[in-house]
Amino acid sequence: xxxxxxxxxxELSLTQDEYQLILESLKRTPNxxxxxxxxxxxxxxxxxxxxxxxxxxxxxxxPRVLIGPGEENAGAxxxxxxxxxxxxxxxxxHPSAIEPYEGAATGVGGIxxxxxxxxxxxxxxxxxxxxxxxxxxxxNVFLFDGVVAGIGGYGxxxxxPDIGGQVTFEGPYGGNPLVNAMCVGIAREDELVxxxxxxxxxxxxxxxxxxxxxxxxxxxxxSVDLTAESEERKTAVQVGNPFLEKxxxxxxxxxxxxxxxxxxxxxxxxxxxxxxxxxxxxxGTGVDIDVAxxxxxxxxxxxxxxxxxxxxxxxxxxxxxxxxxSAKTIFEKWDLSCVKIGTVIDGDTAIIRDSGAIVGExxxxxxxxxxxxxxxxxxxxxIINLRNESFEALDExxxxxxxxxxxxxxxxxxxxxxxYRQYDHQVxxxxxxxxxxGDAAVMRVKGTxxxxxxxxxxxxxxxxxxxxxxxxxxxxEAARNISCVGATPLAITDCLNFGNPERPEVAYQLxxxxxxxSDACRVLELPVISGNVSLYNESQDGAIYPTPTxxxxxxLEDVKHRIGSGxxxxxxxxxxxxxxxxxxxIEDLGGSSYLSAIHGKISGAPQIDFSLEKKVxxxxxxxxxKDLINSAHDVSEGGLIVAIAESCLVGDIGASVSxxxxxxxxxxxxxxxxxxxxxxxxxxxxxxxxxxSLALKSQIPVxxxxxxSGDKLEWQGIIDVSLERLRRAWEEAL
Length: 734
Hints:
Layout: H1 6-11, H2 16-26, H3 32-41, H4 44-47, H5 52-55, E1 65-67, E2 75-80, E3 83-91, H6 93-98, H7 100-116, E4 121-131, H8 138-158, E5 162-169, E6 178-188, E7 203-208, H9 218-221, H10 242-257, E8 263-266, H11 271-283, E9 286-290, H12 303-308, E10 314-319, H13 324-333, E11 337-345, E12 349-354, E13 357-363, H14 364-367, H15 381-387, H16 400-409, H17 417-420, E14 431-433, E15 441-444, E16 451-457, H18 460-465, H19 467-484, E17 488-497, H20 504-524, E18 528-534, E19 538-539, E20 542-543, E21 547-556, E22 573-577, H21 593-599, H22 610-625, E23 631-634, H23 639-651, E24 655-657, H24 667-672, E25 679-683, H25 688-697, E26 702-708, E27 712-715, E28 719-722, H26 723-732
Parallel strand pairs: 4-5, 9-12, 17-18, 24-27
Antiparallel strand pairs: 1-2, 2-3, 3-6, 4-6, 7-10, 7-11, 8-10, 9-11, 12-13, 14-15, 15-16, 16-21, 17-21, 19-20, 22-25, 22-26, 23-25, 24-26, 27-28
């Protein structure tokens, strides 16, 4: 019988048309297990049905790229000296909306396994978190507290420093928070491990935790909208054990170093199904496994439950038969279960047995070739109207001291110290620029003079008002953050968070954001080497803002040239790069935090200048390498005055800004506009002439702003606030 109930298809996130494709592929009706495996592999989370055609437009090559997108669990890029950086960012949004602690914790666990499954030692975690405003709902506070605790609880226990991130509060995330976890590792280029099965006769080993019913349908759950009934799907949320993961990490790195591996793959989304099928597909082989051999922690589990379970802290290890005993010895030394569950076979078939009896038999090529859809988008006219809104009638505040303090209290600008102090960012003793001290974090690469700079970035307001500009800005601002610590951007990993792509307005956001990101990547010559797509981020309250999170890595050839964002010394001169004067128009406030925080408006047109960005970023890296700059901080959320205030607060020293403002068309635009391509720097008096000369030679616009001094921030009688008041507003807001 070819019919299947709509309820079953909905649970598996399959359409009736997709079910017909499955029937055509098999030339028969699938049983429950087989249909479940198709549901996993063709889910949005694993199959990228609505995005893989768009993802092919990303640039993904450079002389440094070792492993690109879609090839393995994570991307890898060379940093010289035979070393590779392995990195990826991934979402755990829907699980975190249901069980915030476990959802966030297992998001960390999953991304860590993606890194060490490639033979790389994880050295850093970052995260990008998005919630509804804490003042609007106790549930927003519950989700915020739970997610932050889950990230800290897992990361601190496993001993990987959490060194950077972003926390954003906007209304649309109240019903559907976003939890994007990023991990970075280091490996030798010639020791990178692949997720592959090798040739016929190799052994498939399941290592780590016993299998339970937690996480079943986790991948398909992540491929549908959140509804009022989603609370009932708590079984789709995994439960983590960071202490077991730490042991698993060390054991896997040991066996990788022994050269005994054919391949290694973590059991993440899709569990045993995706791990086995994807590894076999990469080698063009078949597999024959017996679920009766899988260690379980619950009685009466069916083959369906075993194959679809997403229980955490499990790895698939592939070895030659003659290496099985030595591999088992290594894992048993670490007190880890290691069981042979199957064999690599010739052909294209996945044979699933239960105590020898065949319970599933599927073509691997069909499982890994989910249908691809060309999404058709159309912009919402409401957004067009918001973008074209005029600000001529905007009332400018009379007390700009209070305005600045209110901006520093705004959730998206306020200090995130209350968040990152819950994370151990110094474990391993390699963190050189810690959270809050620079525009990007910097880690030393042991045994070398090198350092790597790491950041995540996205501006959801800009993406909402103009997805093309917002997508481009996510790349540009991440690169600016990397450049501001003196590093050269190398590569990108991204997490594309959007609503339901079957709706035209969301399809438009998705296509335009990817187009903007692609253009920015090409301008800056940056490859996208890994990533994740998270769609259907909607609740009964509507869709989230389009949120294409960009994670980026940069390279410092010598860490002694690193610079932070805080002002350093009394008497240093303050300059603004990227602007010859401060004349601003009211329209420059489009898409700004100022409009949102002070006027309650999300409107206007965010801006971008590709050529200026490239020039300014190249210059800041050059000046840093010549040790001409004491600090650098990009002008982004909050505008120029907020950037200066943050540099004062990070450096714990004041500033006196003396640039004349008499000819400014819009004072608040001058202070708070987020005009692109601008960086605030401080320079020692003795190096000022050399700095200006380099800027002139590089054709970089420069404005002299004032001097680092005192214990307050003042700007020509318009702003005059003590550091103490600024710090109270900035640090106590959360």
